[in-house]
Each structure stands twice: as structure tokens, then as C-alpha cells.
Amino acid sequence: MDQVVTLLKRYLDYLPPELKEEQFITPAAINNYVRKKVMPEPVKKKYYREHIAYLIMICSMKHCLSIPTLQTMIPNGLGSGELRETYTAYVKRHRQAASYFTQQVGMLAAGILDHEAGGELSTDDTGDLISFVAVLSGFSRLLAEKLLLLNGKTADDAADAE
């Protein structure tokens, strides 16, 4: 279990160092995901690639989507081929979103960039940007949930699968 947690921290190393110290993934959380059937059970207490794929997707999206919503997106018990397709699509979208996010932050923060400090954000004027990003995050979550509803999936679907 400790190896799984260490591996996830390395794969998700884009989180700011301050947040990494706050254990974004713990053995207790992993056990909870298994107990709630958000991901498959380990095989003889061992975790394999399929488990890591589920955990990477769960950990990177759990901050903006509820666990029932995640369950509708990545249902437990996918076959290896389905999981590979789901994970490959996730990685592609993650890369696209990261690139888009980086571009948008550059444009939004242009007015408060401290160009003398090598383009880093000036700490004197980040309040408006923080508010904007927080509101954007909320709208993004709403959009994701509404898109799931358009696809005919609800949190009740995930509960029924248990």
C-alpha cells in the first residue's frame, strides 16, 4: 500500500509542494474507494496497473467532482480493454486540459505578472485571479455534471451498480 501511495505522489507531482504534504491520497482513502466500489478490489492485497489507472483518474478529479459522479464516468469492473480505452482517453484529455489551462493562466494573469521576477505572479494582486479561478472551477464542475446527464448517466446509476 505504501508503494502505491508513493507511486501516485510521483505520478501526480504537478500538485504544488504545499499540497503534497497534505496527503491527497492515503491508504485509508484507497481502502475506502475499494469498500465503496469506486475501484476494483486488490488481488491478494496487491495492486496492479488497473488499480493505478483507477487511482490516477480518481485522485486527479476528486477535487472537482463527487465520488458518485466519478463512478458514472469510470465505472468499477471495466474489462481490461475498456479500462485501457478509458484511461487512454483520460490521458489525452488531461494533456489537452493542462495545455489549455497553462495558456489561459498566462492570458488571465498577464496584468499581474511580475515580469521583473521572471514572469511569476505578483503576490500583491492575486485576489481577483483567485476569485475568477474559483468561480470557473464551479462552472466547470456544473458543466461536467450536466454533460453526464446529457449522456443519460446519473449518480443513481453508480449507486445501482453496487
Summarize the structure.
The chain is mainly alpha-helical and 162 residues long.
Rg value: 18 Å
Question: What is the terminal separation in angstroms?
Answer: 24 Å
Helix content: 55-70%
Q: What proportion strand?
A: under 5%
Instruction: Please give the domain count.
Output: 1
Summed up, the helix count is 8
Low-confidence stretches: none
> How confident overall, as mean pLDDT?
81
Give the overall shape: globular
How many strand segments? Answer: 2
Order of helices and strands: HHHHHHEEHH
* Widest beta sheet: strand line-up: 1-2
Helix/strand-derived class? mainly alpha
Biggest β-sheet strands, sense, barrel: 2 strands, antiparallel
Could you please describe the fold and organization of this structure?
The chain has 162 residues and is mainly alpha-helical. The chain has one domain. Helices cover 64% and strands 2% of the residues. The protein is built from 8 helices and 2 strands; from the N terminus they run H-H-H-H-H-H-E-E-H-H. The chain has helices at residues 2-11, 17-20, 27-35, 49-61, 67-73, 80-108, 127-150, 155-161, and strands at 113-114, 120-121. It has a two-stranded antiparallel ribbon with strand order 1-2. A hairpin with a 5-residue loop joins strand 1 and strand 2. Helix 4 packs parallel to helix 6 and helix 5 packs across helix 8. The longest helix has 29 residues, at 80-108. It is globular. The model has no long low-confidence stretch (mean pLDDT 81).
Which labels suit this protein?
mainly alpha, about 0% strand, two-stranded antiparallel ribbon, single chain, 8 helices, about 160 residues
